[in-house]
Amino acid sequence: MKRILLGILAASALSAPTTAAPRDPDVGAYLAARTASIESDFDAAVRYFARALAHDPSNPALMEGLLIAQAAIGEWTRAVPVARRLLEIEADNPVGNLVLLVDAEARDDHDLVLRRIADGKGIGGFPDALLSAWAQYGKGDVAAALATFDRAAKDPTAAPLALTHKAYALASAGDFEAAERI
Q1: 55 vs 80, 104, 124, 141, CA distance in Å?
Q2: Is pTM beyond 0.90 here?
Q3: Is the dihedral of CA 169, 119, 154, 9 positive or negative?
């Protein structure tokens, strides 16, 4: 279940392209990183973004590009220090917030997930609703989680995914009949 959620959350970040060139450039590394990202070669993108970032260590666009590439290959733990640095520069950066939320959820720190989202340090919108519901579920509050999925499903564009996750939660809780009805 956690892998499905992390994948959905990562997808929301992966759609945001990094476009700002480094200020003290290693232009070759930057261009190689962008090309690797475009070609979905995220292993190479990680290497090249890290090299470009070494030349411009406070560039938020490079940090974001590195985080997205790390997320794409599942290097969430290695992304945490970069996310923290990014959030020192851009406190509301959704990619930095995503990494810290995924890290907290991976450590089963559901209270931290809920607290960060309540404090406005989430990703925003529907991903925050999904993550909140799963954090509630992780804390054992299945009723609250199901209610959160239901609230998210009121948005017609989010309803199919919200209801799918509600069905996953119901099945995970052992209510296969309700899950099947959804």
Answers
A1: 20, 30, 31, 47
A2: no
A3: negative
